[in-house]
């Protein structure tokens, strides 16, 4: 697996897009710091961007890489390499290089600004950790979609739909249910519903760490009670791990049965 | 020795391999023939583990290939259409395959034979179809393995390279290797093959030497003999 990871990683590192992605984050980091002139505020703005953009990039990159490397995959399948290692290696190659672009692209401007001297360091680390998680989750989901769809256009369509659902539609439905069932106690429901969307989960996790939960309104109190504690933090990180492991597990399982 | 026992594979409604049984002894050149869509490539890919059969058993030297991958160490495979990652250079590809297989490889004489030196620094996406095919041949022949599987090796080759390819196949045969080859060019098959395995509708329809085939179909010409066995098939179909 290590070798496949190495080749996929260097393949991506050589492509222009990793650099575009890296430079984008670098520019974004510098710009936000310049505009906000404050680390904590920049972290909040950054969160709003990351929470939407990272899943989108992970999905699109994942699906494009899979379809583009079909020849490479077929070449590898005839070699004495375990099947699951081929797909895991390629997946990790994409996810690791994207995470690296994110962490370095955002890390450099913040460190230069004096992150280590400020108390925003934990918030910022959490931001990067959830960003990396989102990359791993959505790349895995994209690989799953690509593996189940021979047709590129269809696969691409499903992938974009997945992102749209997680980033936009899910919130809409969530809000709608909250409004419709206003009379009922919804704290438990909303807490559980959040777990079903890694984007929402990451957002709430960061918001509560940033102590701006007042923005969340009346359910915010329940959220604060849960996510604010260590138990909440570890539960939600656990759920994010689950969100990563399950698609990866399916990836291995499906790839074992697939014909090439 | 490759032994295949009641192999079934269908893609959707399309039954490609239908209770296929065959044993391929060690040593010699075996030509897998059959009309388009008769399951030649599917059979080859099943042996390689790229296609997962619905049921049936494939074993190489009495070891089942199912869920296994180490046996591929002993197989050199040349795919039908040379598809390579386009952003790699030829020498990078060679190095990568060598690294992945962890096996000694002799590529220099082959590069020389096919005059590939000027292309070593070129990206694979910029190569012509014939040159890609030469690279394809190079990758399959640079390792020393007891089993070679060549899927349509003649596609896109110029006459000079075709002669080199035939020489190479002969040399491998003399070294006692087993070579499975598919082709639609009967002249090529007649020249190299020791034994014919004729596939029709996912079954082995004929297995034997060219002489036996000619005798059975009472044809002097190999090409006509091949045409005749598919004709016979039509007749037996009617009897059913």
From TrEMBL, chain A:
The keyword Transmembrane helix applies. The lineage of its organism: Bacteria, Pseudomonadati, Bacteroidota, Saprospiria, Saprospirales. The chain crosses the membrane at residues 20-36, 42-67, 88-112, 124-147, 159-181, 201-219, 231-252. The keyword Transmembrane applies. This is ABC transporter permease. Keywords: Membrane, Transmembrane, Transmembrane helix.
From TrEMBL, chain B:
One of its GO terms (molecular function) is ATP hydrolysis activity. Gene3D superfamilies: P-loop containing nucleotide triphosphate hydrolases (3.40.50.300). This is ABC transporter ATP-binding protein. The keyword Nucleotide-binding applies. The keyword Transport applies. Residues 2-226 form the ABC transporter domain. Pfam families: ABC_tran. Keywords: ATP-binding, Nucleotide-binding, Transport.
């Amino acid at each position: 697996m290590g070798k496949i990871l190495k080749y996929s990683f260097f393949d991506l590192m050589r492509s222009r897009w990793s650099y575009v992605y890296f430079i984008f984050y670098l520019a974004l980091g510098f710009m936000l710091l310049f505009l906000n002139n404050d680390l904590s505020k920049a972290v909040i703005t950054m969160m709003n961007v990351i929470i939407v953009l990272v899943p989108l990039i992970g999905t699109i990159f994942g699906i494009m890489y899979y379809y583009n490397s079909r020849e490479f995959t077929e070449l590898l399948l005839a070699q004495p390499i375990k099947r699951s290692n081929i797909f895991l290696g390629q997946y990790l190659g994409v996810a690791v290089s994207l995470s690296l672009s994110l962490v370095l692209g955002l890390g450099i401007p913040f460190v230069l600004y004096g992150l280590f001297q400020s108390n925003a360091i934990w918030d910022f680390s959490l931001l990067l950790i959830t960003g990396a998680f989102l990359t791993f989750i959505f790349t895995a989901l994209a690989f799953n979609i690509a593996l189940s769809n021979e047709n590129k256009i269809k696969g691409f369509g499903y992938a974009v739909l997945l992102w749209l659902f997680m980033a936009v539609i899910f919130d809409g439905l969530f809000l709608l249910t909250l409004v419709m069932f206003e009379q009922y106690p919804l704290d438990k429901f909303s807490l559980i519903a959040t777990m079903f969307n890694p984007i929402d989960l990451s957002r709430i996790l960061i918001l509560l760490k940033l102590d701006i939960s007042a923005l969340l309104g009346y359910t915010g109190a329940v959220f604060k009670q849960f996510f604010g504690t260590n138990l909440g933090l570890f539960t939600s990180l656990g759920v994010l791990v689950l969100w990563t492991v399950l698609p990866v597990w399916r990836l291995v399982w499906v790839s074992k049965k697939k014909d090439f | 020795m490759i032994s295949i026992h009641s192999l079934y594979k269908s893609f959707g409604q399309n039954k490609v391999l239908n209770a296929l049984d065959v044993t391929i002894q060690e040593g010699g050149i075996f030509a897998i023939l059959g009309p388009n869509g008769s399951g030649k490539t599917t059979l080859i890919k099943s042996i390689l583990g790229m296609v997962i059969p619905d049921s049936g058993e494939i074993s190489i030297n009495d070891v089942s290939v199912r869920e296994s991958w180490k046996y591929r160490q002993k197989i050199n495979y040349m795919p039908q259409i040379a598809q390579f990652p386009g952003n790699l250079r030829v020498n990078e590809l060679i190095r990568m395959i060598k690294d992945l297989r962890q096996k000694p490889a002799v590529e220099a004489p082959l590069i020389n034979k096919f005059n590939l030196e000027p292309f070593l620094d070129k990206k694979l996406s910029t190569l012509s179809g014939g040159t890609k095919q030469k690279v394809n041949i190079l990758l399959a022949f640079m390792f020393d393995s007891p089993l070679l599987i060549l899927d349509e090796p003649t596609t896109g080759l110029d006459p000079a390279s075709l002669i080199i390819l035939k020489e190479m196949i002969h040399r491998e045969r003399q070294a006692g290797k087993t070579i499975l080859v598919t082709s639609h060019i009967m002249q090529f098959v007649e020249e190299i093959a020791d034994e014919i395995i004729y596939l029709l509708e996912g079954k082995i329809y004929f297995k034997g030497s060219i002489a036996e085939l000619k005798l059975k179909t009472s044809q002097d010409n190999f090409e006509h003999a091949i045409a005749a066995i598919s004709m016979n098939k039509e007749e037996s179909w009617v009897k059913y």
